[in-house]
Design a protein that fits this description.
5-stranded antiparallel beta sheet, alpha+beta, 5 helices, 35% helix
Length: 225
């Protein structure tokens, strides 16, 4: 009985760690799958009408976003892409004039976290630029050219570097970029109020950030593997 009790205690201590490791492998695989699907969508848009992402004005960025959404077979979106796809830059005024559904699908502020447990939020101007994919993953376009993905949607853990990842769009590139040409990036850099401060990531510090930092570095680390 004593032996069985000891085995039970050890199992109770180690099982959560094993479960987390298994989940993390699944999340990593799902992220790479989403990155590949997004890359294919960008290539398809380019083949159909020659469009690539370019440094866009804040007010007309939904045009390219909607082209990608069409390729991704989006289930729910904050934008009315059927009205947006034929619009031009001159049709847009402020973000409040985007044809939209009035809904945003990314996580509510303080309901998602970095790896250190710090609650996160996004700039409210980007809330409408989010959608849900057929497999339940949720996507948010953030800070002009960053793409956030929660690979298992609203299910927990909702933690950066575990089930939440990011990549970015580089001007005129045909696929998403790992590290920008400038050599560094600050994820969620447009968050307001300074409550969601994130590190400046480079190829030299992404592993450290992934293992013991915010978790944003995991995205770049996994794509470089």
């Amino acid at each position: 009985m004593i032996t069985l009790g000891i085995i039970g205690i050890v199992a109770a201590m180690t099982l959560p760690t094993l479960i987390n490791k298994t989940q993390d492998k699944e999340f990593k695989t799902a992220f790479k799958k989403q990155y590949s699907a997004f890359s294919q969508a960008m290539l398809q848009v380019y083949m159909e009408d020659g469009s690539t992402y370019e440094e866009v004005n804040w007010t007309n960025m939904p045009v390219y976003i909607c082209k990608i959404q069409t390729q991704m077979k989006v289930v729910k979106s904050g934008l009315q892409c059927d009205k947006i796809k034929n619009m031009t830059e001159e049709n847009f005024g402020t973000t409040s004039e985007w044809p939209n559904t009035g809904k945003h699908y990314w996580h509510t502020d303080n309901k998602w976290f970095d790896k250190k447990g710090n609650p996160q939020g996004i700039n409210g101007g980007y809330r409408l630029l989010s959608y849900i994919l057929p497999d339940g993953a949720i996507v948010n376009y953030n800070c002009y050219n960053q793409i956030f993905i929660d690979v298992n949607g609203y299910k927990k853990p909702n933690v950066i570097g575990r089930d939440i990842f990011f990549f970015r769009l580089e001007s005129k590139n045909l696929i998403p970029t790992i590290v920008p040409s400038s050599g560094q990036i600050r994820p969620n850099g447009c968050a307001m109020g300074g409550t969601n401060s994130t590190p400046i990531l480079t190829k030299d510090n992404i592993e450290e950030d992934c293992k013991s930092g915010s978790g944003w570095g995991c995205s770049l680390l996994y794509l470089l593997e």
